[in-house]
Amino acid sequence: MSYITPKWIAEKDTPSWIAEQIATRPQHTHLYLPLKLPAGKSSAEQFLNDVWDAVDSCILLNMSRLEHLEVVDRRKNTSVVIKTQQIGLTQLKTQPIVPFEDLTFLDLKGSMVRLCTLEGDETFRVYSCQIDVPSSIEQRENSTTTLTIAFPCNPEYTLKANVYTGLPVCDLGFNFIFNAEFHLVTNRENVLENAKLNIYLRDHLAVLFVYLLSNDIDLKRDISRFCPLGNTHHGKRSSWWLSMVDRIRNLLKKHLSDILGIRAGKTIRYWNPTLAPLISAKQLETYANIRVIDVTDKLYNVDLLESIQVEKVSITDVLTCFPNRDDESNEFQQWALKQDESWWSQLFHCLLEALTPDISQLMFKKPIFLLQDSRERQYLPTPNENCPMLYINDDSSVRIWKPRLTILQYASLDEKAALLRFHKVQTLTEQKLIEIIQCQHLDLCVKSVMILVDENLLEEIWNDLSYLQSRVEKLDASKPFLVPIQASDPCLTFIRNATLPTVLGLDITPYVSATPVTFVRFPYFTVDSNHLINHLQWEDFLLKMGCTCPSINLPDTYTIDQLPTLPLFTMFTNEKYARLGEFILSAHPEDTQQVLRQFPIVSMINSEQRIQPVSMAFNQFITADFVKLPRVDVPPYCCTLAIKLGVRADYDLITCMNILRYLSSEKIANVDLYLHWLTRLQLDIKEKIETVDKESFLSDCQLYLPDQEKFCLLKDLLIVAEIDN
Fold it and tell me: Is 17 within a domain?
């Protein structure tokens, strides 16, 4: 109709059939549209069909005065009858001037309009206003133009078109219609997209649409239905129309708080059922300043909210409810601390599924961590250069002692996985801890060969060595490790620069040469309540790590009671520790071993305890009949160690010779004993090769001759074959 120029027809020129129509309804305005196409042709039929189809009932919503429209098709004897009735006003009252988003709308009105057709009645909310059109946009006789936006009240009503310029122009898939003086393309199937006026009208319509949604309470209730933000009809929209949708989206996002009646400054989220077991909407609003929209409410669907970039409640929002380190504790933190392990497991499960670097950074600012030896979740220690890494220790038997290491516990596998996903947390493996100890010792070594330390660091180094001690087979002895040393002030030095202060648990520092010697600090750090076992373990470890063996020298005037007593062999509680003793003894040079054989041991003589050099002692098992011999109890697994110390612990050549000497010196006349030990002597001489002083033995040892009832030196006896009497 925009292209039609009305022309009055004189009464005398009016065709008779038109005159009859006018006479029937003299109160109506009659338009005569002559068709210049030949009647009966297909083109004429198509044109008439198009005219009939264009009779959209909604066109009357755009008319300020036209209230009744009737179209009769005499070809098919059918008709279209459309009527409108204003039945009230909208919730939005008339406003003479509306400034909004730097635009101005004049004489804004809203009315409730009933649209009556032969198919039934429908109700619409119809809003219209005037806007000024600058001359820079278009030169016009009238500088104002009218904008109309109408919304169907019935959610089931289907609109045939959305864009109107009097008559319908095109369908964009919106659930509302708007009418404006768009310039159209020739076939009226779309607006002329590049025209300045059309851009101007489109942008005003977008702003007006958002203003109406923000200020009419009835429209707010149907916001999800009316917002043109879904993807359903994108195929019907060109990029030119999509820019209108984007403008609406951005404005809705900007004014969402007003639309939802939420106080400015609050973050808006929609509910996430997955996080429902962790937190409530009230807690989110109280502790994170987040207003949660319930998407089960038909007013706000997820598609709408996501289209205006409203996010669902996330694990980040839950974390935000916890206070930061510098904040005061809040009730949410206290409430969370009272939750059971399943709650915390669910929290870390959700963290694991959503974990990003940003979430990790936020997570590590919150009091949600279980530290070693702590039952209450808390903040991590303040990060610094000395504590760059966090660790998870899976070995519950090892309590980490190093203050620079922060050890995290976990209550569930999800918690562990979430912690490990963060690059600053590692699993503290045995090898990793060894490397950490080694690096720290190396850093200390760089400063000085001899390092003064405080008592805390001294204890830490002892703990380091205690850990390494039980894993000595996995260590590289060439790598530098520090050890505390004996000095007036606490000091450290390389293990290989220090000297062992003990042998088999004996403090031998008083018997070492006068040359200045740097001894390992003694007493050792306690790793075993049994003093001997504790000393053996340290000696074994230090020797394997390159500690220097002491060189022992006894003064010529020493007496046996001036020397420390060697441990009893029964104090080596099992084979493991007997083997340690053997290794320790073997690690020392032969001259040191020879000196150690002069050290005393407690032995039994005539049922009394006596102090005797260990090399003079006999194994009680083989000398039970000789109470006057110095005897010691040697468990079977300690025989090798006892023999290394000079104890006559087995049936060897020297033992046999010594016992035969003892029998003769004590004038024992038991022939069976002589026969027993002579037999063993015979076996040992045949089977073993030992360097002995045979001449001395023949001159010292006597045999008892029962037939003569006297003792005779071996050198005076002649051994002959058995002969007849």
Answer: no
Same domain, 559 and 540: no
Which residues have a Cβ under 8 Å from the Cβ of 98 and sit 6 or more positions away? 104, 105, 106, 108, 129, 211
**Amino acid letter, 521:** R
- 660-716, pLDDT tens digit by residue? 877 777 787 778 777 887 887 777 666 555 566 777 778 878 888 888 888 888 888
User: Greatest CA separation found in the chain?
Assistant: 190
Q: Tell me, yes or no, whether 15 lies in a domain.
A: no
Angle at 59 between CA 57 and CA 62, to 5 degrees: 140
Q: Which residue has the higher pLDDT, 12 or 492?
A: 492
pLDDT at 244: 93
Give the model's pLDDT for residue 64. 79
Q: What is the C-alpha separation between 57 and 659, in angstroms, rounded?
A: 134
- Same domain for 113 and 197, yes or no, is yes
**3-state secondary structure (DSSP) of residue 543:** helix
Tokens at 692, concatenated:
């002995």
Could you give the C-alpha distances from 207 to 195, 244, 253, 351, 635, in angstroms and in order?
19, 9, 13, 40, 100
Answer yes or no: are the C-beta atoms of 464 and 438 closer than 8 Å. no
- Rounded distance, CA 494 to CA 273, Å? 61
- Of 642, 669, 689, which one is at a domain's C-terminal end? 642
Positive or negative, the CA dihedral 154, 158, 162, 167 is: negative
In this structure, are 151 and 257 located in the same domain?
A: yes
CA 393 – CA 467 distance, rounded (Å): 14
Instruction: Please report the pLDDT score of residue 264 as a whole number.
Output: 76
Strands (E), 393-444: 406-409, 425-427
Which pairing describes strands 425-427 and 390-392: parallel, antiparallel, or unpaired? parallel
Q: What is the pLDDT of residues 307-328, one digit of tens each?
A: 777 889 999 999 999 999 888 9
Are 574 and 482 in a shared domain?
A: no
Radius of gyration of the chain (CA): 54
Structural tokens at position 336: 């969370």
How far apart (Å, rounded) are the C-alpha atoms in residues 375 and 369?
10
Backbone φ and ψ for 36, nearest 5 degrees, come out as -90, -5
Query: What confidence tens digit (pLDDT) does each residue in 82-94 have?
Result: 999 999 999 999 9
For residues 120 and 284, what is the distance between their CA atoms, to the nearest angstrom? Answer: 48
C-alpha 173/C-alpha 234 separation (Å) is: 8
Q: 236-292, pLDDT tens digit by residue?
A: 778 899 999 999 989 988 888 888 778 778 888 989 999 999 999 999 999 999 998
Which tokens hold the place of 464? Answer: 């380091």
Record the tokens describing residue 197, joined without a space. 């006026």
Tokens of 688: 């073993």
Mean per-residue pLDDT, 112-129: 94
In degrees, rounded to 5, the angle at the alpha carbon of residue 16 between the alpha carbons of residues 15 and 20 is: 120
Collapse the DSSP code of 421 into the 3-class scheme (helix H, G, I; strand E, B; otherwise coil) and give the result: helix
Query: How many angstroms separate the CA atoms of 305 and 302, rounded?
Result: 5
Q: Please indicate, yes or no, if residue 56 is contained in any of the structural domains.
A: no
Q: What is the domain extent for residue 165?
A: 86-312
Q: Identify the helix (H) or strand (E) that includes residue 108.
A: strand 103-117
Q: How many structural domains is the chain composed of?
A: 4
Q: For the chain, percent helix, then strand, then coil, each to nearest 5?
A: 40, 20, 40
Q: Tens of pLDDT along 449-474?
A: 567 778 899 999 999 999 999 899 99
Same domain, 215 and 295: yes
Tokens representing 285? Answer: 């609003």
pLDDT digits (tens, 9 = 90+) for 188-209: 788 999 899 999 999 999 999 9
pLDDT of residue 691: 63
Q: Are residues 298 and 340 in the same domain?
A: no
